[in-house]
Design brief:
The complex is a heterodimer of chains A (112) and B (117).
Chain A lengths: L3 E2 L4 E5 L4 E7 L4 E9 L6 E7 L4 E4 L2 E6 L4 E6 L8 E9 L6 E2 L3 E6 L1
Parallel strand pairs in A: 2-11
Antiparallel strand pairs in A: 1-3, 3-8, 4-5, 4-9, 6-7, 7-8, 9-10, 9-11
Chain B lengths: L3 E4 L2 E4 L5 E7 L5 E7 L5 E8 L2 E5 L6 E7 L2 E6 L8 E8 L12 E2 L3 E5 L1
Parallel strand pairs in B: 2-11
Antiparallel strand pairs in B: 1-3, 3-8, 4-5, 4-9, 5-6, 7-8, 9-10, 9-11
Chain lengths: 112, 117
């Protein structure tokens, strides 16, 4: 029962271009969404989040968009840099749980 | 100065053994978690402790038991290890639940790769 789905296991992008990572969720109770970045042999690190009362949150090169009606969110990285190469996890939680549920991650490779 | 540290980083052990993984956070957070990342790469919550009280316990075998001697530590004890327990285990911590409108941004340790042979 995958409540948070990241259907693309990998994504390859050229340096300077836009990276778009997608995430879908099924639980309509989710009201807070987070993106984490993970390098090999390290733990995930928090990147950016968005509350369900918003449809966009921007932090530097990173922007998260939320489409509640479609139960879909996406992370945009512009411009992409080789150092962005990592696994990106989408996570979501609800006011009743406060325990984030994670997707299986998307491996982003940014080519120089 | 590591915010969330867990030891050991690697652990290889035989079936049937009992082992522990330690976790410490120096962020003053009230909530700590244990996650398991299995072979399919999903990060699945195992336990969460808030102010030393277990607030959620997903359907994990009772061979797994969290121990929290204080707010800064949440250790994971595993009895009678099985082959299927092989995975990477992550400890994490976060501020008080939804404090001042914030979400559950968690800080993770570097992970412990457990291999049961």
């Amino acid at each position: 029962d995958q409540q948070v789905k990241q259907n693309s296991p990998s994504l390859s992008v050229q340096e300077g271009r836009i990276s778009i990572l997608n995430c879908d969720y099924t639980n309509s109770m989710f009201d807070y969404f987070l993106w984490y970045k993970k390098y090999p042999a390290e733990g995930p690190t928090f990147l950016i989040s968005i509350s369900s009362i918003k449809d966009k949150n921007e932090d530097g090169r990173f922007t998260v968009f939320l489409n509640k009606s479609a139960k879909h969110l996406s992370l945009h990285i512009v411009p992409s840099q080789p150092g962005d190469s990592a696994v990106y996890f989408c996570a979501a939680d609800s006011g009743g749980s406060y325990i984030p549920t994670f997707g299986r991650g998307t491996s982003l490779i940014v080519h120089p | 100065d590591t915010a969330v540290s867990q030891t050991p980083k690697y652990l290889v052990t035989q079936m049937g053994n009992d082992k522990s993984i330690k976790c410490e956070q120096n962020l003053g957070h009230d909530t700590m978690y244990w996650y398991k990342q299995d072979s399919k790469k999903f990060l699945k919550i195992m336990f969460s402790y808030n102010n030393k009280e277990l607030i959620i316990n997903e359907t994990v075998p009772n061979r797994f038991s969290p121990k929290s001697p204080d707010k800064a530590h949440l250790n994971l004890h595993i009895n009678s290890l099985e082959l299927g327990d092989s995975a990477v285990y992550f400890c994490a911590s976060s501020p008080a639940l939804r404090d001042r409108g914030r979400g559950t941004e968690a800080f993770f340790g570097q992970g412990t790769r457990l291999t049961v042979v």
